[in-house]
Amino acid sequence: MSLIIDSLHSHIAEKDVLKGISLTVQPGEIHAIMGPNGSGKSTLAYTLAGHPAYEVDTVKSRVELDGENLMELSPDERAKQGVFLAFQYPTEIPGVSVQNFLRALWEARFGPLKDNPEKSFDSVLAFRRYLQAEAEKLGVAPELLQRNLNEGFSGGERKRVEILQMSLFKPRYAILDETDSGLDIDAIRIVAEGAKHIVETHDTGVLLITHYQRILQFIEPDFVHVLVNGQIVKSGEKELAQELENTGYEPYLTQ
Ligand code: ADP
Ligand code: MG
Fold first, then answer.
1. For 108, left (φ over 0), alpha (ψ -120 to 50), or beta?
2. Of 137, 156, 210, 242, which sits 20 to 30 A from 71 (CA to CA)?
3. 76-114, pLDDT tens digit by residue?
4. Domains and CATH numbers, the chain
5. Which residues contact 146 (CB under 8 A, 6 or more apart)?
6. Long-range own/partner contacts, residues 110-118 (CB < 8 A, 24 or more apart)
7. Where are the beta strands (DSSP E) in 109-222?
């Protein structure tokens, strides 16, 4: 059981972006991927999730999800297999309540509410009770569940709902692309705590993608990888994040 990324090459709009990424994520491990803007961090996240704009060089690349060839799975199948790209839906969805959105997400992962191997609910009401209990555990106010997704949410509320979304999904592997450098410190803490929560409760393997090391004040990665120009130029343990904080990416840019 592991997510094995082996020599991943991927391009977008004729531009080679990922030029041979290799790393293995075991369940329960947190890998931080750090790198300057434009180094290919988001491309890595979208490529793994199966975004159609990103084309993989299938001759050179191999990605194995718990023994299966990830590249042969559609984005929906990847989701069913437990690959979760965090914050896929950061925007408002008018007219869709949080609870209905979460139900659709849950069914996409586990199948119809009734008669599924994960948990059978005999009614939508029973599912809502389950949602409320989960929301409470993660500090999501119950009234938020009835509101339209992200409509008028504060940054913190948005993040909490995203973490609830991730937690209900019980990902085997979660990819968190922290593109939003405008997040305040409370929101960053919520994301960090949410990531720790899924690692502890579901033994999820996490790829935590980040430009800044701020989030790493709240979560200790097992491994840190420096991504520059589509390649991992250095891997280490958590001390590497500290080192980057002191030196910046400068020492790696000339390589
Ligand atoms: P990061 O997330 O590390 O900032 P990205 O993965 O977003 O980097 O981008 C990597 C490279 O791919 C950049 O040079 C960027 O300009 C390019 N790129 C990303 N999206 C597109 C696109 N839609 N069309 C052309 N080039 C793109
Ligand atoms: Mg990015």
1. alpha
2. 210
3. 899 999 999 876 455 667 788 999 999 988 998 898 888
4. 3-92+156-253 (3.40.50.300)
5. 97, 98, 99
6. 118/170
7. 173-178, 205-210
Nearest-CA residue for atom 5 of ligand 1: 40
Ligand 1 atom at shortest distance from the alpha carbon of 35: 3
Rounded-to-integer distance, Cα 114 and Cα 125, Å:
12
9 lines ligand 1 (CB under 6 A): no
Evaluate whether 61 touches 238 at the Cβ level (below 8 Å): no
**Structure letter (DSSP) for residue 40:** S
Integer Cα distance of 251 and 196 in angstroms: 31
Give dist(CA 137, CA 201) in Å, integer.
12
Least distant ligand from the CA of 38: 1
With the most atoms of ligand 1 within 8 angstroms of its CB, the residue from 8, 43, 87, 231 to mutate is 43
Return the ligand number nearest the Cα of 41: 1
Would you say the CB of residue 14 lies under 6 angstroms from ligand 1?
no
Q: Does ligand 1 have an atom closer than 6 angstroms to the CB of 229?
A: no
Round to whole Å and give the CA distance between 125 and 102.
Answer: 13
